[in-house]
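tool_call predict_complex ligand=pyridoxal-5'-phosphate
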Amino acid sequence: MHAQQFASDNYAGICPEAMAAITEANVGSAGGYGDDGWTRRATDAVRALFDTECDMFLVFNGTAANALALAACCQSYHAVICAERAHVDVDEASAPEFFSGGAKLLVARGADGKLAPGHVTSLAEARRDVHFAKPRAVTISQTTENGLVYRPAEIAAIGAASHAQGLHLHMDGARFANAVAALNCHPADITWKAGVDVLSFGGTKNGMAVSEAVVFFNRDLARDFAWRRKQAGQLASKMRFLAAPWAAMLPSGGWLANARHANEAAARFAAAVTRIDARLLRYPTQANGVFLTLPENLAAALRARGWVFYTFAGNVSRFMFGWDADIARVDALAADLAELHAAAANAA
Ligand SMILES: *Cc1c(COP(=O)(O)O)cnc(C)c1O
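tool_result ok
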C-alpha cells in the first residue's frame, strides 16, 4: 500500500458503493451488450437525474466519450470550437479528429481555458467559405482543465451563441459531478436547460472503475450511435459491470457525496495555501483541483519529500483531490508546503 498522492483524481481506487454494485451484479448470467436489467436501470437513473428523456450510452473512458460524441455532431469536413488547453485538443491523441474522420479543432485563444460566447461567435464567423472547415460544434469542459466551474448562466450564454450559429454544444463532463456539487444546482440547469446537446458524463474520476456515460439530450444526434460505439471498440459485452455502479450511485446520491468530499478536500488545501501565501494560488479553487504557481526549488523540495504532482508550463503545479481524499494526508501536504515555503523564504 502506497501513501496517498494528489497528482490526479484517477489515482483513487473504486469507491465502496461502486464496488458493491459490481459484486451484486456478479450473480448468474445476464444478457450481453447492455441487454440486462442493470443497464436499463442505469439509463432510467440518468433520465431521472436530468429530469428529461435522453439517450445514454456507456463507454470505457473519457477520450472515447468525447471523441464519439463529437463525431456524432460532425461530418469529416466540419470544425469544433474549443478552449485552449481543452482535453480534446491536448490530451486525446487526436481521437476527436480521428473518429470524426477529419473534423478540425478550432482553439479559442485566451480566457484561462474557459470559453466565452464571444469566442464562439468570432470563430464561427471568421471563415464561412468552402475552403475552410465548416464550424459545426462547440465543446466546453465542466469543470475546466484548470479547475474552474461554468455557472448556469455562462453555459446558457454559450448555448445560445452556439445555436445561433447552427452549432451543437458538447460538454466534457469528466468532472461533471464536481461541478454540480460546487454549484449546488440541478444537473439539468447546466446541461439541457442551458443548451447542451450532448454530455460526456464522467464516472471514473467520480469513483467508478471504468465508464463514462455519453448522454444525448438532442436525441437526433444519437442516431446510429450504437454502431459508432461498437465500431470504436467501446461496446462492453459484459455491460452490466459498467452499468451497475450508475444504477446504484445516481439514485442513492453517492455520486454527489463523492464529489462533495473531493471538493471539500481541495477547499481545505486551498485554505491552507492561503494562510501560507495566497499568491501561490494560480486559479481560484472552485471544485476539486488546486493549481499553484510554485517556484522550481519549492516544487523540487516537495517532490523530495515524496509528493507526486504534475507541473505544467509556467511552473503551474496541479493537485487533484478524489472521492477518497484522506484529510490527514491533505493536512500533511499543507504542512510540508508550509515548512518548505518558510525555509525557502529564510534562505532568500
Ligand atoms: C480525465 C479527463 C478526461 C477523460 O480522460 P480518459 O483518460 O480518456 O478517461 C476527459 N476530459 C477531461 C477534462 C479530463 O480531465
